[in-house]
Amino acid sequence: MKLFIYHTPEQTPTDKIPDCAIAVDVLRATTTMATVLNAGAEAVQVFSDINELMVVSEKWPADQRLRAGERGGSMVEGFDLGNSPLDCTPERVQGRRLFITTTNGTRALQAVQNAPTVLAAALINRAAVVNYLVEKQPETLWLVGSGWEGSFSLEDTTCTGAIAHSLLTQLNCNEEALAGNDEVIGAIALYSKWQDRLLDMFHHASHGQRLLRLNCHEDLKYCAQLDILDVLPIQKEPGILVKN
Ligand code: 3SL
Fold first, then answer.
1. Most buried pick, 19, 55, 84, 238, via CB within 10 A?
2. What pLDDT is attached to residue 73?
3. 103 lines ligand 1 (CB under 6 A)
């Protein structure tokens, strides 16, 4: 297995595709996707464009859909939900499809949607993702951080490092054998620095600070938990993720 990490969708190559690609948006899109599927949602369908989401979701039965999304961290006007994983309770989401648009996370998924296998990862489902990778052993693997509007984000690259770090242990190999680019070595170093202080790391991150200004402290606490959900969001057709 050769692992390549890209910090943002913009840095992700467009002239090739890996065997498996994983989008990461710890704060908060991929955390929300893992949570909603774990809570019994039928599927998650992602959009970068609000109008397109409205047109497609309009064709879905009203009692079987939820429209979710944020811009600048705040809920899109008229939607059922924002992008808080804490709102995704079984009572609210069971059996429904979540139509979601977010600033960066949905773009990361769309950047890799042509790969044969596409997953969504966060800290909360890191172990489920790593177990899948160890079982399937894709030859080429990309981890794509969502960043923030084209820039690096501390929390996404730390999460890619958490996945890489666990892969090293599970595959019993060294960094040189696993790493396809230098970003892998950097991400593992970043995770090693923060692994026991993930919530603290969010407080240092610019997007963590943005969410704190929006009173999302409970969201940060939830998103900072490692390996708490055994759920693997996997793409079944472009833009549509289901529980594996
Ligand atoms: O950028 C994104 O995709 C979102 O996850 C951002 S937020 O955490 O909902 O503000």
1. 84
2. 85
3. yes
Report the predicted TM-score, pTM, of the whole model to 2 decimal places: 0.97
Work out which ligand 1 atom sits closest to the CA atom of 28: 5
DSSP notation for 88-153: --HHHHTT-EEEEE-SSHHHHHHHTTTSSEEEEE-STTHHHHHHHHHHH--SEEEEEE--BTTB--
Length of the chain: 244
Phi, psi (deg, nearest 5) at residue 67: -100, 125
Q: Is the CB of 183 under 6 A from ligand 1?
A: no
C-alpha–C-alpha distance, residues 81 and 160, integer Å? 27
Q: Pairing relation of β-strands 74-75 and 43-47?
A: unpaired
What's the token pair of residue 60? 């879905």
Q: Cα(first)–Cα(last) distance of the chain, in Å?
A: 21
The alpha carbon of 137 and the centre of ligand 1 are apart by a number of angstroms equal to 30
Residues 8-26 have pLDDT tens digits of 999 999 999 999 999 999 9
Q: Ligand 1 within 6 A of 154 CB?
A: no
Cα 175 to middle of ligand 1, angstroms: 30
Query: Two tokens at 50?
Result: 């609000």
E strand or H helix that includes residue 185 = helix 182-194
**C-alpha angle with apex 10: 133 to 117, nearest 5 degrees?**
25
**How many angstroms from the chain centroid is the CA of residue 238?**
16
Atom of ligand 1 nearest to the CA of 107: 3
Distance between CA atoms of residues 102 and 81, nearest Å: 12
